[in-house]
Design brief:
Elements lengths: L2 H67 L1 H8 L7 H19 L8 H23 L7 H14 L5 H16 L1
Length: 178
Amino acid sequence: MDPVDILVDVLRYSVPAAIVVIMAVVVFRHLVKIEYRRQSGELRLHAFQQILPLRIAASERAALYLERINPANSIARHNATPGLSARQLHEILLAEMNQEYEHNVVQQIYLSEAAWTLLNKAKLDITGILHRVLARMSPQSTALDYSEALYAEMGQLEENPVNPALQALRYDLLRMSK
């Protein structure tokens, strides 16, 4: 046999084999990518299904906290306590707000940064309002005097400090459900 014939025979068998190997590699890579995407999607879905109830519960807890620190609601819980001075009611409201905050601080993990920031802003704004109202009270002022002054102060605000945080929580819940 002639060397050229040998070369032609080698090429006749090796070229189709090389084409088959290249096609197998291309198909295998494509199948691996498809499987990776499928498993990645399943993993994301599973994580979402695990996290969603926690995020909803955190939003509920945050909303409850905001409703509890709302001066109108917190005063209603203590206004019937006889013999409280303005300072005592002020201290009770601040202590409850801080205690409730400490109890819910871990919820920030599941809330958006915007919602958590607005929740903190609401807490600081309400704390400032409580201090401002107490500063205008005389030492002899009663809890009823403090409550009335606090209601009047809240009535002068353009917006209750709690509302932006509640709106952010609602927005987050709507975004989660999409």
